[in-house]
Amino acid sequence: MRPGGLLAIASTISSTALSQSPLPTFVRFRAPHRNHSIFSHAFNHTASGRSSGPSCSLQNRRIFFGGSNALMSLEAVVRNRESLEKKSAAIRSAGPSKLQVIADFDGTLTKYTVDGRRGQTSHGLLQQGNAEYDAKRQALYDYYHPLEYSPTIPLEEKTKLMEEWWEKTHGLLVEGGLTFDAIKKSVADATIAFRDGVVELFEFLEEKDVPVLIFSAGLADIIEEVFRQKLHRSFKNIKVVSNRMVFDDNDRLISFKGKTIHVLNKNEHALDMAAPVHDNLGDPNGSVNDYSLVKNRTNVLLLGDHIGDLGMSDGVEYENRISVGFLNGNTEESIGSYREAFDVVYLNDASMWGVIELASQLCSSDQ
């Protein structure tokens, strides 16, 4: 994180940005040294419902992980502490068997900044090895990307434009002869990295048998290659719901499975459209029966870096949802809208340690 800590962050947020509603709760987390437990209960509750963790004021709540040697500190904004604690208690009471995690990939699980440079997205890192087709895809980006964020285009029209963009891009990947070797090389050369603590989060959720649905409008094959190269392992509880490629015997792209998933339909309804390979946890050749087990998990921990990512849970009839947003930049301009949209907002390209702490509390048997 940037030097300066909590006071530096607080001083960059103007009174104007916070004037529309009551002051949020600022939370400072400390990531533990590797020799200390990362699962101390920062949100520990007593029977009375009051926090039995470190004392704090509403406007400046400080929560510390176990261990005196901190790797780094994180700043977060909690919209409504009482609401968060109520949701946490309900989810904890229902148990891990009713919980699922829904996460965006780019800018959420991955860092926004890598070694001082803007990190690449899973779609943006791809190089076909064919300069002509790379240029054609860039031209599509230059045309459609401004339309994606245009405030004047109606949603229905914008949805059609996004479908058009994705289908043209996929067509160029097929026409340009993309190979799996090109994907592996693109990932190896890419400026992309997972947030600190992502592995520990996945390991904890796997241990608790909590499924993780990673929704992406990008390319599943690239995301999975990022897992292989950056984490060097897979997780049985993780399902990538994204656009999946079909390769021939020579590892050359020939088509895509299922219907196109783009930025405006990236939610659990996409599971109904995705290829059958997406319909099972841990078994790409399985039936759709396990899909119902995910649907029956009515408590959601949602992770995203854009307000639009809140729509990832639109297909879930959830009872309780805790939303965590990562505000990677433009704090001054965006803190107000992010605070209103998410239950918890982490600032400045934060690590995943705070989410680990929250997840461990949600899965705790302590009442």
From TrEMBL:
Superkingdom as given in the UniProt entry: Eukaryota
An annotated Gene Ontology molecular function: magnesium ion binding
Gene Ontology biological process terms in this record: nucleotide metabolic process
Residue ranges of the TM segments: none
Classification via SUPFAM superfamilies: HAD-like
Group of enzyme by EC: hydrolase
EC id: 3.1.3.5
Name of the protein in its database record: 5'-nucleotidase
Family statement drawn from the similarity comment of this UniProt entry: Belongs to the pyrimidine 5'-nucleotidase family.
Any GO CC annotation of this UniProt entry: cytoplasm
InterPro entries in the cross-refs: HAD-like_sf, HAD_sf, Pyrimidine_nucleotidase_eu
Keyword DNA-binding listed: no
Pfam families noted in UniProt: UMPH-1 (PF05822)
PANTHER family: 5'-NUCLEOTIDASE, 7-METHYLGUANOSINE PHOSPHATE-SPECIFIC 5'-NUCLEOTIDASE
Signal peptide interval: none
UniProt catalytic activity: a ribonucleoside 5'-phosphate + H2O = a ribonucleoside + phosphate
